[in-house]
From TrEMBL:
Region of interest (Disordered), residue spans: 227-271
Gene3D superfamilies listed in its UniProt record: 1.20.80.10, Pleckstrin-homology domain (PH domain)/Phosphotyrosine-binding domain (PTB)
Ranges where the FERM domain occurs: 1-233
Pfam families: FERM_M (PF00373), IRS (PF02174)
Domain of life assignment: Eukaryota
UniProt source species: Vidua macroura (Pin-tailed whydah)
PROSITE patterns the record matches: FERM_3
Name of the protein described by the UniProt record: MYO10 protein
Biased composition regions of type Pro residues, renumbered to the chain: 234-244
Organism ancestry: Eukaryota, Metazoa, Chordata, Craniata, Vertebrata
Annotated gene: Myo10_3
C-alpha cells in the first residue's frame, strides 16, 4: 500500500521506509547484497510527479482548421511531430532515470545508517512510521463521489473504512475531508452494480466504484461489531432499593459531532 501511494507522507519518510525495507530484506549494507528494483522500494508516482507536464495541444477552432491539421498530419508535418514526440519521450525517460538514480542513492545512504539493526527492529520501525498516519489499519477504496444524482461532476476520492469510522480523503492528502462514526450512518447499499449509496444522517452520498460488494461486506462487518458494543451489559441485581436518576440515553461510537477541523487521514492495510 505504501508503494501504491496509499500512505500520504513526505518523500524523506518514504526514503526511510525504503531503507528499513532493505535492512529487513538484506541486513546491513553491502555492495554484494541483492538490490530490488526501485519500484519495489519507493512509490513510482513520486518520481513521475517530478517530470514536467506534457504540453497542452489546443483544439482546432473551426472545420477549416481541423481539415488543414488533418492534411498536414498526413505529410511532412506529421513526420516532424512524430520526431518531436520521440525526442521528448527520450528526454523524459532520461530525466526519469536520473531521478531514480538520485533517489536510490539517498535510500542507500539511509540504509548505511541502520547498520546493526535486526530484522524485527527494522519491521517494527517501518510500521511505527506508517502508524504516524492515524488512518493506519483502515481499508481504502478509489471512488468517484456524486453529491446527488443531479449534482456536479464526480470527484475522485479515497473512501477509508476503519473500525470506528468511515472517512473521505482527497488522494494523497493526510487530512480527511470528512469522517463519520458508525452511529451517524443510517443506511447503505448498492444502487446498481457500480454505484454505492451511503446515508449519513440527512445526507445521501453516491459513489461510483468497481468494488461495491467489497465495500458493503466490510461495512456490514464493522456495523455488526459496533452494534454488539452498544448492547447493554447484564447487571447484578440491586441489593438496596434503587434511587431515581435522570434517564441517560445510550450513545453511539462517538459523541455528538463537534465543529469540523482538520485531522490526519485513515489508512489501509500495509505490507
Amino acid at each position: 500500500m505504501v508503494l501504491r501511494g496509499y500512505v500520504p507522507t513526505s518523500e524523506e519518510t518514504l526514503q526511510t521506509l525504503a531503507a528499513l525495507r532493505l535492512q529487513s530484506l538484506n541486513s546491513d549494507f553491502s555492495t554484494h547484497a541483492p538490490f530490488p528494483r526501485l519500484e519495489e522500494l519507493f512509490p513510482p508516482h513520486v518520481l513521475h510527479a517530478r517530470l514536467p507536464p506534457l504540453p497542452h495541444r489546443p483544439p482546432a477552432k473551426c472545420r477549416g482548421a481541423r481539415l488543414r491539421a488533418g492534411l498536414l498530419a498526413g505529410g511532412l508535418w506529421g513526420q516532424a511531430l512524430a520526431k518531436q514526440r520521440a525526442e521528448r519521450d527520450q528526454r523524459l525517460r532520461g530525466r526519469l532515470r536520473e531521478e531514480g538514480a538520485s533517489t536510490m542513492a539517498a535510500i542507500v545512504e539511509k540504509w548505511k545508517l541502520l547498520q546493526g539493526m535486526g530484522r524485527p527492529e527494522a519491521m517494527a520501525a517501518y510500521v511505527a512510521l506508517v502508524r504516524e498516519w492515524p488512518g493506519f489499519g483502515s481499508t481504502l477504496f478509489d471512488v468517484d463521489l456524486h453529491a446527488s444524482p443531479v449534482g456536479p461532476g464526480p470527484q475522485r476520492l479515497w473512501l477509508g473504512i476503519g473500525a470506528k469510522a468511515v472517512s473521505l480523503y482527497k488522494p494523497g492528502e493526510r487530512e480527511p475531508l470528512d469522517s463519520f462514526c458508525y452511529g451517524r450512518i443510517s443506511s447503505f447499499g448498492a444502487s446498481d452494480s457500480s454505484t454505492f449509496r451511503l446515508s449519513v444522517e440527512d445526507r445521501d452520498l453516491l459513489f461510483e466504484t468497481s468494488q461495491v460488494d467489497e465495500i458493503a461486506q466490510l461495512l456490514n462487518t464493522y456495523l455488526a461489531s459496533a452494534s454488539a458494543q452498544r448492547l447493554p451489559r447484564p447487571q447484578e441485581p440491586p441489593t438496596s432499593p434503587p434511587t431515581l436518576e435522570p434517564t441517560v440515553l445510550p450513545q453511539g461510537l462517538c459523541p455528538a459531532p463537534e465543529p469540523w477541523h482538520h485531522r490526519p487521514p485513515v489508512g489501509s492495510s500495509h505490507s
